[in-house]
């Protein structure tokens, strides 16, 4: 129905719809659309869980994460394995969003902001933190140095960032790279996880 509606509106107005609303058993539901080449992503939530503006932010963020992992919407649904991974992403999203509907308004507001929560540090500690990140990015120590393997590394660091208990302490990443990392961590609930649990090590690798 929503795909047909999007197509009809596009043919009639020569513009692609971004949002619509409908009532289901007296409950207002917001629907958001994202067009990617010949593919379309559709997201719907009760108005009690998200406003029309928040729905636009939600779908933009989810599509950003999917594109980061698979390159495009169409590639994300090519085979069973990637479909299962996307299902997991949406399962986490809906679980967190529907839980937030029952949470205090201040907590929901903080989780829905399209930016990272930043924890300001004293100047000397901030300088030390930035120094540690710079040292990591140089990768010129221990078994990470080129001298250790006597060969040139096959990769370079674009930058790095540091979160503590869900709060950003420092970032040396370009804006778009940081946004990708932040949204990936947010929608896979890694920021919430690290705010309540100790995580020893987690490696996510994509080429």
From TrEMBL:
GO cellular component terms, semicolon-separated: cilium; cytoplasm
GO terms for biological process, alphabetical: cilium assembly; establishment of planar polarity; nervous system development; vesicle-mediated transport
CCZ1/INTU second Longin domain sequence ranges: 159-207
Pfam families with a match to the protein in the record: Intu_longin_2
InterPro entries per record: CCZ1/INTU_longin_2 (IPR043988), INTU (IPR039151)
Signal peptide feature range: none
Classification via PANTHER family: PROTEIN INTURNED
Protein's UniProt name: Putative pdz domain-containing protein
Organism whose genome encodes this protein: Ornithodoros turicata
Taxonomic lineage: Eukaryota, Metazoa, Ecdysozoa, Arthropoda, Chelicerata
């Amino acid at each position: 129905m929503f795909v047909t509606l999007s197509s009809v509106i596009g043919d009639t107005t020569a513009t692609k719809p971004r949002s619509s609303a409908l009532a289901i058993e007296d409950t207002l539901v917001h629907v958001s659309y994202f067009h990617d080449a010949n593919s379309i992503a559709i997201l719907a939530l009760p108005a009690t869980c998200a406003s029309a503006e928040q729905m636009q932010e939600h779908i933009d963020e989810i599509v950003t994460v999917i594109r980061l992992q698979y390159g495009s919407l169409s590639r994300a649904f090519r085979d069973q394995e990637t479909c299962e991974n996307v299902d997991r992403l949406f399962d986490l999203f809906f679980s967190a969003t529907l839980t937030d509907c029952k949470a205090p308004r201040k907590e929901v507001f903080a989780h829905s902001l399209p930016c990272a929560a930043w924890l300001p540090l004293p100047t000397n500690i901030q300088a030390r933190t930035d120094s540690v990140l710079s040292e990591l990015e140089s990768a010129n120590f221990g078994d990470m140095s080129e001298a250790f393997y006597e060969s040139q590394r096959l990769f370079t660091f674009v930058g790095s960032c540091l979160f503590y208990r869900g709060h950003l302490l420092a970032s040396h990443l370009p804006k778009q790279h940081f946004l990708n990392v932040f949204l990936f961590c947010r929608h896979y609930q890694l920021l919430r996880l690290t705010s309540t649990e100790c995580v020893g090590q987690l490696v996510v690798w994509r080429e």
